[in-house]
Amino acid sequence: MKHPLPRRAASVAVLASVLLALPSLPALAQSAHSPTAETAAPTAPVPARQFTLSNGMTLIVKPDRRAPTAVQMLWVRVGSVDEVDGTSGVAHVLEHMMFKGSKQLKPGEFSRRVAALGGRENAFTTRDYTGYYQQIPAGQLEQVMKLESDRFASNQWPDDEFKREIEVVKEERRMRTDDQPRALLGEQQNAAIFTASPYHRPVVGWMSDLEAMTPADARAFFQRWYVPSNAAIVVAGDVDVDQVRAWAEKYYGSIPTRAVPERKPRSEPAQRGVRRVEFKAPAEQAYVSLAFRAPQISTGDAFGAAADSDAYALVVLAALLDGYPGARLDRALTQGPDRVADSAGAYAGFIGRGPQIFGLDGVPAAGKTPEAVEAALRAEVAKVAREGVGAAELARVKTQWVASETYKLDSVMAQARELGSNWVQGLPLDASERIIAKLQAVTAEQVQAVAAKYFGDDQMTAAVLRPLPPEPNRRPRGFAAPAGDLR
Description:
By secondary structure, this protein is of the alpha+beta class. The protein folds into two domains: 40-251, 2-Layer Sandwich (Cytochrome Bc1 Complex, Chain A, domain 1), CATH 3.30.830.10; 275-468, Cytochrome Bc1 Complex, Chain A, domain 1. 38% of the residues lie in helices and 17% in strands. The protein has helices spanning 37-40, 90-97, 109-116, 141-154, 159-178, 181-193, 207-212, 215-225, 241-251, 309-322, 328-334, 370-387, 391-407, 412-424, 431-440, 444-453; strands spanning 49-52, 58-63, 69-76, 120-125, 130-137, 231-237, 275-282, 287-294, 341-348, 356-364, 460-468. Strand 1 and strand 2 form a beta hairpin. The longest helix is centred in the middle third of the chain and has 20 residues, at 159-178. The chain is globular and about 65 Å long.
């Protein structure tokens, strides 16, 4: 699992550079052919094309011939939202095990072969999906398609590999959650926000579930969800569409198909009162996180429905509060001699397979209390509800989104990630452009209306980190897990 994004970035997840959440990759070895004058010259962007392979798997291809590199991403529409109690974290554990062998490859050989081709690869698990990617010289694309299709079709490994890798995952949880007070607070807050939704479980899993997990749990999850019609291959870069389609049919289309298990709805009950989480841990500073139930946009055939207008207006509100240096929260809470916070942020979730939230957070300044930060955060939203927003302020955030749509084209990784994210959420390939158009149409009156509608006490789950003094005998832990990769 990749390092998570800062929570405040979620407000513009599909719009700006959240698609660059994958770390920057080092320069790659060049393919044997050099760009011709035709491919080197600036050209208009070529639209992505989508196909369905003979076994029901989706293929999406986006040519971009500005550099001799290509990205392949495998997206599987399965994440922690598909787990059941007692096996939390199994989606992420399986992601690790996908690097541990197949009928054709020994444990670790997949990564060695990608490196030998001059490429880089990794994977990530989220609530809604799991992804695997390679960035390689364009001339090596067929080879990584062959490798990826093999492990998707026939991932297998001995039990000893699982026993070693589960220790790596447990150490990952210790490093990124158990040793991080704010991460622990967020975990407790999510468990309080969501009742019926599987979002109440952490992606990495509860430690007790990791301790009890067996190789059979991971194998069963693989057999259940790693199904051709539940997955998509996305290829972006210096590629020929017809050639990629032929390779995809050859390597992926021959994988036997199975039915995707039925997913039953798990609707979240209405919240009927404020919820509060108090968490104490050794920490340097207190921290406040406020979460409010928020609407999400519809997907599939209903994408872009008029009923989604509140969701788009909340995204604009988050950008007005925290979308640029010197935005409202920055000016009101962190600047001046009487500042109440060292930092403050806002984010709006509006796309996902589960319920979404609008979040506000802040770190109290010296001498200030978490209660003061909570009051200041809510006061800024109330101010928008009372006074509205100006035309120039609204135009500024909209201009930034349009710019981000242009900048993302500089990265084939960003393009591939955006296309895969759209597919996995049931959105059309051009969803980002259509979302930008929807956001540009949001009016000041709509922003003011949602600021008044979604931020009452009965819609809020507040979490506060109360810092304790450092533990005097605590020693920093080294990484003691057996050989393996933190992903």
